[in-house]
Amino acid sequence: MSQYIRVWDLPTRLFHWSLVGLVAAMWASGEQGGEWLQYHVWCGIALAVLLLFRVLWGMAGSQTARFASFVRGPVGVLAYIKGQVTEQDNPGHNPLGGWMVVLMLLALLVQVGTGLFASDVDSYLFNGPLAARIASDLSESLTSFHKNFFNLILALVALHVSAIIAYRVFKKQNLVRPMITGYKQMDSKPSPLMFKPLIMAVVTLLLSGLAVYLLLTYF
Asked: How many whole angstroms separate alpha carbon 189 and alpha carbon 79?
């Protein structure tokens, strides 16, 4: 008999949906240009804090949020594809989903990193926070890369959404609901999962914000 098991903690779920909102806001503000670029910069700084938080939470957070719990090598991924490893063995991200998480985080880190050094080549009013730290030619090159690289992020988002739809249609698994409620429907109860206290996530977020502030202020 299936039952609902808690697999995602609140910090991981809030990170996920905040990431969705920030990426959408950055896309919209970047496309608008002009004075909207100020909001684009602010969203980029917020995203930098969020990504640093996720990296730290992926190392010291709750069990299903840790990279060690879902990042597998080629053998593990192949075993999952062959059906030798089931969802029961991976209550959080499965091996394929785990690599999607890693790729998305890396892509967003590159996007945010280049955005910090990018220049507003139209009005020069809303440069990235660190654009003045490097030569203008390099800043403009990074700006071009920043704009073009976002197409890769859109492709990853499309792949992610397609995978969610495929799991829903072919495997009858709803991957969205657990990321909202924290609970996943499973055939049997897995081994007890470890969840870190919420205060630890709050402290991690504050430290992430402080680190980004120090980077932008003193770099």
From this structure: 22
Q: Which residues contact 51 (CB under 8 A, 6 or more apart)?
A: 105, 108, 109, 112
Residue closest to 112 by CA, chosen among 10, 201, 208: 208
The distance from CA 91 to its chain's CA centroid, rounded to whole angstroms, is 19
Token pair listed for 159: 């792949």
Chain segment 173-184, per-residue pLDDT in tens: 899 999 999 999
Where residue 1 falls among pLDDT bands split at 50, 70, 90?
low
Beta strands in 50-152 (DSSP E): none
Average pLDDT, integer, range 119-133: 87
Q: 187: pLDDT confidence band, cut at 50, 70 and 90?
A: confident
Q: How far is 105 from 188, CA to CA, in rounded Å?
A: 31
* Secondary structure element (H or E) that encloses residue 47, with its range: helix 36-60
Handedness of CA 143, 148, 150, 152 (dihedral sign): negative
Phi and psi at 26, nearest 5°, equal -65, -40
